[in-house]
Structure to design on (186 residues):
């Protein structure tokens, strides 16, 4: 769904083109989306809601800013391992504690696999960052981060694809689904 259709669904009325007699009147839609009242669909829709603490949201903004700086400096077309090292360096340079290639346990029924999953970067023991350098992010890549969040119990994840022309096309913020179900009960 495009942004115009999304805004229309959320209450946008009127034309943004002054030549057609319209004016830039977005109504209440942007406020509702920013405050988390709108529904964008899926786990990502809940990011701006109160499911993550302000500290986690601020930390995520700092990590996104670090990833942006790496993308701006080296551009697309390199190997994933290069981007991971550069991002780790940038995160640490900004005074954040980060670990690379962190092993996560996986519980299956009564079986515990200690070293089943490996997260690219874990920042401040709060956010999992999964780095990609691929043509297009697919649903399975988002599902991978969600699986890591479920297995680790961490509240938030960031999926970053550096193989894009514009950085804003290459990242996705994700929330642990356990947090979603916990708030739906209340």
């Amino acid at each position: 769904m495009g942004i115009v259709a999304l805004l229309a669904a959320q209450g946008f009325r009127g034309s943004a083109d002054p030549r057609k007699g319209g004016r830039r009147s977005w109504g209440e839609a942007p406020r509702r989306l920013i405050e988390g009242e709108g529904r964008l669909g899926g786990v990502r829709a809940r990011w701006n809601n109160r499911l993550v603490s302000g500290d986690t949201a601020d930390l995520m903004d700092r990590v996104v800013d670090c990833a942006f700086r790496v993308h701006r400096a080296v551009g697309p077309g390199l190997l994933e391992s290069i981007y991971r090292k550069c991002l780790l360096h940038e995160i640490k340079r900004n005074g954040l504690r980060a670990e690379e290639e962190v092993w996560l346990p996986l519980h299956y029924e009564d079986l515990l696999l200690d070293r089943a999953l490996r997260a690219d970067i874990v920042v401040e023991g709060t956010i999992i960052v999964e780095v990609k350098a691929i043509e297009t992010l697919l649903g399975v890549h988002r599902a991978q981060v969600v699986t890591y969040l479920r297995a680790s119990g961490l509240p938030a994840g960031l999926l970053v694809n550096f193989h894009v022309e514009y950085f804003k096309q290459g990242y996705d913020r994700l929330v642990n689904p356990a947090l979603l179900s916990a708030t739906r009960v209340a």
About this structure: Strands lie at 98-108, 111-123, 127-132, 156-161, 171-175.
